[in-house]
Amino acid sequence: MNAALADRFLEQTQNPDGGWGYHPGDPSMVEPTGAVMLALADGSDGSDRPAWSRAHAWLEQAQHPDGGWGFGLEDPESHWATAWAILALARRQPDTPAVRRGVRWLWEVPVLRIVQRDLTEEIARGLGIDPAIAGWPWRPGEAAWVEPTALALLALAAAGALAENLPRIPEAVRYLADRRCRGGGWNFGNPFMLGTYLPPRAHPTAWALLALGQVAPDQIRDEDVAALRHEMAADGGALALALGVLALETIGRPDPQARARLAAMQQPDGSWAGSPYVTALARLALGGGWPWQPRA
Predict the structure, then answer these.
(1) For the whole prediction, is pTM greater than 0.90?
(2) Is the Cα dihedral 180, 181, 186, 192 positive or negative?
């Protein structure tokens, strides 16, 4: 990997307002902006870069009065993107007022939980899950999904806030265990539907492993790692490889072959797939892994 070239691509694709879109010229969004901020920090104090400071200001501007974030400045609803904003802002100072308000929003966001016995038994028979166990939803009041649950856990860990609402953390870990696919790994939501066991996918499996590495590393199984290795190779795309390598490097289960494939996908302009978001994740993956160390 040419890290300097990747950083130059990221800095050159920053929008005038301080954020980044998923592709150059796209409107600024919280998720790619947060990812690029983590990449530019690069495990040291890269947060003093002018690009990082402008992005920090944009994120604070995008925060809603309720403490959460939407997709960008034009989205009035707070939702799962809040986790990305917390991750980016906590990289420099995990205890600022903006981070604390975001953490409070994450703790308080409602999630659909089905507790009626007849319904839980019916859902367990039809979907193979326990609907009474909740993680985090994409949007307030909806059912939980694997990726927003993982991102919320990562954000709370980064902000040093795991102990503030302790019952919700072990429940989220149980949720991830309950949604594990047969044979290991994770799909986006349910592992079983319409009489069929669903296969794991690289993206949610990578996020789940990153999150478990932060909050419950003893829950990571060898079959989860094997599922991720298989799925990232089968997918073959830059995003799947970036997320997969990032997760495996961070939990101490590196895949040198996948790492080499990812490095070889860097384009002449320094990017991966011409995307600031994918480039940021690849930069993190090849530059040492997730900025926060997993629990021992």
Answers:
(1) yes
(2) negative
With a CB cutoff of 8 Å and minimum separation 6, the contacts of 213 are 220, 247, 250, 251, 290, 294, 295
Q: How confident is the model at residue 22 (pLDDT cuts 50, 70, 90)?
A: very high
SS3 annotation, the chain: CCHHHHHHHHHHCCCCCCCECCCCCCCCEHHHHHHHHHHHHCCCCHHHCHHHHHHHHHHHHHCCCCCCCCCCCCCCCCCCHHHHHHHHHHCCCCCCHHHHHHHHHHHHCCCCCCCCHHHHHHHHHHHCCCCCCCCEECCCCCCEEHHHHHHHHHHHHHCCCCCCCCCHHHHHHHHHHHCECCCCCECCCCCEECCEECCCCHHHHHHHHHHHHHHCHHHCCHHHHHHHHHHHHHHCCHHHHHHHHHHHHHCCCCCHHHHHHHHHCCCCCCCECCEHHHHHHHHHHHCCCCCCCCCC
Q: What is the pLDDT of residue 34?
A: 97
3-state secondary structure string, 206-222?
A: HHHHHHHHHHCHHHCCH
Render pLDDT for 150-175 as a digit per residue (tens, 0 to 9). Answer: 999 999 999 999 988 889 999 999 99
Mean pLDDT of all residues belonging to the chain: 91
CA angle 50, 75, 201 (to 5 degrees): 85
- CA separation, residue 113 to residues 3, 134, 252, 259 (Å): 44, 6, 34, 39
Reading the block at residue 275, the tokens are 């995307």
